[in-house]
Amino acid sequence: MVCYQQQLQAEFNRMHPELQISEQRIADQYRVIMRNNLILESRLNNIKQEVEREISQANSETVLGDNNQRNQEDNAELRDNLIRELRRAL
Description:
This protein is mostly helical. It folds into 2 domains: 1-38; 40-90, no CATH class. 80% of the residues lie in helices and 0% in strands. It is built from 4 helices and no strands. The longest helix is centred in the middle third of the chain and has 23 residues, at 41-63. The radius of gyration is 15 Å and the shape is globular. The mean pLDDT is 79.
């Protein structure tokens, strides 16, 4: 759980460097959103499917021999998309 919180905060800070929000606050907000079903189930399923599709595509590119830097960029883009979609759903 701690690694998850650190990753979530790092991504949030990267996207919003002007805001100073604690790791615990970000994790708490995420938990409240998920626990109280503040995102419609259909929207959440759409987000999951999109992320799975993008991860699958990134993995197939890896098999084809893309370099490690490209994979890291793809993973960062996937995280950005997921965070953006979660924010839009609110």
